[in-house]
Write a structure and sequence with these properties.
This protein is mainly α and about 180 residues long. Among the domains are: about 1-40 and about 55-70, no CATH class; about 100-145, no CATH class. The chain has five helices and two strands. It has helices spanning about 1-10, 15-35, 60-70, 100-110, 125-130, and strands at about 75-85, 90-95. Strands 1-2 form a two-stranded antiparallel ribbon. The mean pLDDT is about 80.
Length: about 180
């Protein structure tokens, strides 16, 4: 399973195949548009795919995510098989992560700070104990407010430059730039 995981991660197979499929769909749609706009053409173009058949997450990416989830320790998750009914026929197989701490640990170890923002997150002690089991309690800060806060209590800032004056540009080309390590 780990050889498959390494292959999928290094080859980016799902991303490449999904890109190929997207290009093929674009070409088909362009042909369809040309047939519709040509008044001389007597051929009836095929109807477009219904939205239900075109998932927002490509199937191969879902299969890849499932296979990668299987490399987690067995005590951290379970495989759930659901059988359909009359309203929604079919079978679905899902991986349910029961222990997010191991998956979240690399983020906790590398990040200077982490902000968990959301709606109903109480009891927040569950989040702390499950996501940050090794973090010292004095590093955890909990801020909570009512469901609706006045706009005067909300401030959004963007930073163009870091403390060294270097522009903060987080893109693919700068991913190895050691000067951005000032944020660690």
């Amino acid at each position: 399973m780990y050889k498959i995981k390494n292959y999928l991660e290094t080859s980016n197979l799902a991303r490449k195949l999904n890109g190929f499929i997207d290009k093929a769909k674009e070409k088909e749609e362009e042909k369809r548009r040309q047939l519709l706009s040509d008044p001389k053409c007597s051929v009836t173009p095929p109807p477009p795919l219904p939205p239900a058949l075109s998932s927002s997450i490509p199937t191969l990416t879902q299969v890849e995510a499932f296979l990668l989830a299987l490399t987690n320790p067995d005590k951290d998750g379970r495989i759930v098989i659901s059988f359909g009914n009359a309203d929604s026929p079919g079978v679905s197989i899902k991986y349910m992560l029961l222990n997010p701490a191991n998956a979240f640990k690399p983020i906790v170890d590398e990040a200077k700070s982490i902000i968990l923002a959301g709606g109903t997150m109480e009891p927040v002690s569950d989040f702390f104990s499950h996501l940050f089991p090794t973090a010292p309690k004095e590093r955890l800060v909990h801020f909570s407010c009512g469901h609706i806060i006045p706009s005067t209590n909300l401030l959004t800032l963007t930073l163009e430059k870091g403390s060294t004056g270097k522009q903060l540009l987080f893109n693919f080309e700068n991913r190895q730039d050691v000067s951005l390590n000032e944020l660690k």
